[in-house]
């Protein structure tokens, strides 16, 4: 099973403050453990929401673009991992080991990535196309 681990942002990262050298070193070691265990598929940090945009869809109207920064810092995503784990409990155990050298309060959300079998209206043709597109995009990485 694949899981997306969503690391919430904080006021410092939203203000453009990068992580400390200590945090970068600790996260590098943690990521190395994830790679050695064969569970890390992807992982990235994100820039502040001031560099982002939202596209808002509202019915039949033209989509509206809203430039950042966005309010509610605690609700914003600051980074993520995609982990391949046996089950949710294994993923939780990995994330409980995540470094927090500055001892900051925060929240990390874990969500299972949906698979083709999760969609009851998935036709065989769309499932085949999805598989082909995944294979093509993996070849471009």
Keywords:
single chain, 141 residues, alpha+beta, 4-stranded antiparallel β-sheet, two-stranded antiparallel sheet, 6 strands, 33% helix, 24% strand, globular
> What's the total count of β strands?
6
Number of helical segments with 4 or more residues? 4
**Average of per-residue pLDDT values:** 92
Q: In which range does the helix fraction lie?
A: 25-40%
- Poorly predicted parts: none
Proportion of beta-strand residues:
15-25%
> Major sheet: order of its strands?
2-5-1-6
**Can you write the helix and strand succession as a string?**
EHHEEEEHEH
The general outline is: globular
Pairing-aware structural class of the strands and helices?
Answer: alpha+beta
**Distance N to C terminus:** 21 Å
Gyration radius, rounded: 18 Å
* Major sheet summary line: 4 strands, antiparallel
Description:
The model has no long low-confidence stretch (mean pLDDT 92). The protein is an alpha+beta fold. 33% of the residues lie in helices and 24% in strands. The chain is globular, with a radius of gyration of 18 Å. The strands form two sheets. A four-stranded antiparallel sheet has the order 2-5-1-6. A two-stranded antiparallel ribbon has the order 3-4. Strand 3 (53-56) and strand 4 (64-67) form a beta hairpin.
SSE order and pairing:
Elements (H helix, E strand, L loop, with lengths): L1 E7 L2 H4 L6 H16 L3 E6 L7 E4 L7 E4 L9 E8 L3 H9 L11 E5 L11 H17 L1
Antiparallel strand pairs: 1-5, 1-6, 2-5, 3-4
What can be said about this structure in brief?
With about 140 residues, the protein is α+β, with helices and mostly antiparallel strands. About 35% of the residues lie in helices and about 25% in strands.
